[in-house]
Amino acid sequence: MSGFLAIPVVAACIVDRKKVLLTRRFSPLHPHLHKKWDYPGGKIEVGERPEGALVREIKEELKLTITVRNLLGVFINTYPHLDNPAIVLFFLALPEHSKDMEAVKGEGIDRFEWFHFDQISKLEEDDGLLPGISNTTVQLFRKGFIT
Known about the structure:
By secondary structure, the protein is of the alpha+beta class. It has helices at about 50-60, 115-120, 135-140; strands spanning about 5-15, 20-25, 35-40, 40-45, 65-75, 85-95, 110-115. The N and C termini lie far apart (about 40 Å).
């Protein structure tokens, strides 16, 4: 790690009818991420507010408009391909129109899917789920954040 600077990142738990939207990363140069399911999101650009960055990232990656609700938590993630850790602001969001969604080529994802929380709890890291996703989603359902 170079210095103590962290990379500011946003991620969304997008919920619709008791299902959560996950995206599958497409990153052949980074095998620890490639073909893994994750919450959608990305880096906050200079001068951006976190909520605005999240709306922009979801629109770029999925052509989906969202309404950002509450901040669910703040996490620190480290990635082998980055020099510095990422501070992830994790938000609850609702889709405005999900029927026109598509995974945009070149935006780091190749697929998206709506998962019921029961499905997520049965997935394992070997099934392509990034560590922590299953537990985080199940806990959000159990605590009533996702209904």
